[in-house]
Amino acid sequence: MHLKISGRDLELTSGLRKYTVAKLERVLRRFDNVTEVKVLLSVDDYRQTIQCAEVYVQMNGRGVFAESSNEDLYVAIDSLAEKLERQAVPHDTRAQASHRDAVTFRSMSMALLAKF
Known about the structure:
Elements: E1 2-8, H1 14-28, E2 34-43, E3 51-59, E4 62-70, H2 73-115
Parallel strand pairs: 1-2
Antiparallel strand pairs: 2-3, 3-4
């Protein structure tokens, strides 16, 4: 997995980088086959007090995007992690449902073959 953290109109400190990595590592364990993660931390151009956090997670054949903004960048990162976690739940259930459907189809086809 390739992780790229960049900042626009703001200085990325090592503490901010470590905090972002720690929050995203916990959430990214729920996604399968993550190939690349791009994080952009920025200050809003029009309202200088609002700070934004965006993340794009690239998986095999699929991408997930989330963004959050707040006056405090650490709160924006927390909110971003929560949004990613909510998007991971449907991803997990789809993967489980797909696996469950494949097993059911296989067992039905084997039962049909056994009759002949």
